[in-house]
Amino acid sequence: MTIFNLYIFDKFGTLLHYAEWNRTKKSGITREEEAKLTYGMLFSIKSFVSKISPHDPREGFLYYKTNRYALHYLETPSGLKFVLNTDTTAINVKELLQQMYAKVWVEFVVRDPLWTPGTVVTSELFQSKLDEFVRQSPIFGIRNI
Q: Which SMART domains has this protein been placed in (predicted)?
């Protein structure tokens, strides 16, 4: 199992943090353009799911899967959006994203007196703790393709 990259957006679509680990193919566009496309796609998928779902979509959109990767999504009550791209065999990613939010984001960003909500996270401590958290997760690995 492999984790490729992570986007963290605020409720307004601002990219607060981006990290990548085992991503082998680049998109050919800037990170900012890629983030805008990703956020726009998420906005559209969430809207589509809420309108087309035959059931009450309480949890809404959680993930989608292609034959090459899976995109996992967690939205917090405050509107933060965590987007994690993995290989297709990754399991329990929702729980991983919830732990990432509680154990890394809240501890090292929300409680950082130097961070202003809505601004890019530049804390080296957060970046190192996030990297450590991801590398120790059971779904982190090197892709064998």
A: Sybindin
Return all residues near 107 (Cβ < 8 A) that are at least 6 apart.
129
- What SS3 class is residue 50? helix
Separation CA 12–CA 41 (nearest Å) = 14
Question: Is residue 142, in this structure, part of any structural domain at all?
Answer: no
21, 5 in Cβ contact below 8 A?
A: yes
Question: How far is residue 86's CA from residue 94's CA, in Å, rounded to a whole number?
Answer: 12
- DSSP assignment, residue 83? E
State which residues form the domain around 51.
3-136
pLDDT at 61: 77
Task: State the Cα–Cα distance between residues 122 and 95, nearest whole angstrom.
Answer: 25
